[in-house]
Amino acid sequence: MRSKKSIAEYIFDASLYLFLTVIFIVTFYPFWNILVISLNDATDTLRGGLYFWPREVTFDSYLTIFRNPEIWSAIRVTVLRTVIGTALSIFCISMLAYSLSKRHLLGWRFFSFFFVFTMYFGGGLIPTYMVIKSLGLIDSFWVFIFPGLIGVFLMILVRTFIEQLPGEIEESAKIDGANDLQIFFRIVMPLCVPVLATIGLFLAIGHWNSWYDSYIYTYKPELKTLQAVMVKILNQFQTAGMMSDAQQLAQSSTRVPVSSESIRMAVTMVATLPIVLVYPFVQKYFVKGMMMGAIKS
Amino acid sequence: MQTNMNVHDGRELKIPRRKLWTVFKEQKYLFLMMLPALIWAVLFAYTPMVGLYMSFVNYQPNLGGFWTTLFHSEFVGFEWFRYFFTNGDFLKVMRNTLASTLITLCFSFPMPIIIAIAINEIKNVSFKKTVQTASYLPYFISWVIAANIIVTLLSSDGVINAILKFFHITNESILFLQNGKYFWWIVAIGNTWKDMGYSSIMYLAAISAINPELYEAAKVDGANRFKQIRYITLPHLKPTIVILLILALGGILNAGFDQHFLLGNELTKDYSDVLSTYSFRYGIQNGMFSYAAAVGMFSSVVAFIIVCIVNFTAKKVNGQSLF
Fold first, then answer.
1. A62, B30, B79, B165: least CB-packed within 10 angstroms?
2. A145: pLDDT confidence band, cut at 50, 70 and 90?
3. What is the pTM assigned to this prediction?
């Protein structure tokens, strides 16, 4: 008589735990699997059957990719675009959000519509490509920064946050003779740090993960980002996947194939690891961002 | 100047009819702060819309700069659209797009609801946190990484084939990514895998807004936990579910470019070609720019109409606009 729980409730609880354990395995195991394959000897990997633990532990795949100057250049470009792109975007988005938070702004309705409309309609792939080409952004580092400079949805998050700030602070600054620029940079922006951190994380993840711009707008190898290098490797692998295992083994007896699965998984780990490492610390910001978005819609 | 600003704030309400120029001068810093975003919107959002004119001409890229070439190209009206609708690819591409988004919806829509309810029912905080942390993670990796992982898991000696062989569902390895009939299902499950944890946050937020007294009262009345879910949690989630379903239906033509482009290959293209990848292939890879722009324009316009319908419906259902 210690517990009032019925047998049915025990079964209910057990099935909940079982279900969520399955969810955990399904979302976590793939990452474990790529780690295992990346730590296994590249030639040995071709035998298959690597599921829980590497058979021949070696860091060779990582050494191979880090000896490759292409990877270092890709990491440099990716880090640069993430830092510069995120900083510039936060700067421009927050300024826009501040302007649009002022309902007395001349033509407020027009400008709000002007920006929100871009969320729902666009020129599409081909005209965008043509415009970027005609602006001379092909094979330029700035093609990673400018086309994605403003995120209108993120701007709305910041604007909502600014509108919820107590108006008195700005009022008193105005009475002290501060202009809009001074009010924004000295008073509003410091108060916005929580929301700017949230959108900054979304922007940074977006930059780190972006592959399309590097893939189609750049030809120079020194402008290829990590993700674009991975697309290339993936394509090679997809083509190799159409060969039989025997063909692959024959190839591997002479040398480790370029499309070696272990090396591909090592590159995948290198691209994933920063996100996995940073993610637990910033998780609450993402959740907050999602909540803000939820409230908005 | 600064004194002017002060005066302006005091006077603005009293004298509404003032010269635009004076108001503009007073708000010059606000406009200055908007300027980078305005330039961005003009260059990268509205100029490409002007570029949609491509779909009404026969654009040949070898004549010079984009704009000169564009406006000197031969006007063909709706010829490219007619070509798209009549050449047989239209039906195939639409079928793939709708199949991919609808199958995705069947998995990715209910899963977050089930996860949120299950997480809410669990009392063990550390278990809850672990599951949540793991389930959000796939959302933050790129589709390139996700595709790399999926390709590995589904390869002939990957873990999925190993499981299928273990249970004797198949004796030969299934070549999932080389066979078109599996493609939509792979994309659907991939989409769900990537987004289900993160989407559950929205429902968890809605659940946390439910008054706990309702559950207390239900317990007193002898309702077990199934009944609490059935009669308290689900009815309170209904508005969120309806709105998110309407929004999801709004994206019905928007089968993501990344997953179809990265997971598809020559062998599966009859099933993996959706509107966006089809337009990409014809435009960027085959150089049929006008045709590709027309395909893109078709999908943008239809998607926009759907969004308007969705917004209208949401307004009816929810009493408020999404815009």
1. B165
2. very high
3. 0.87
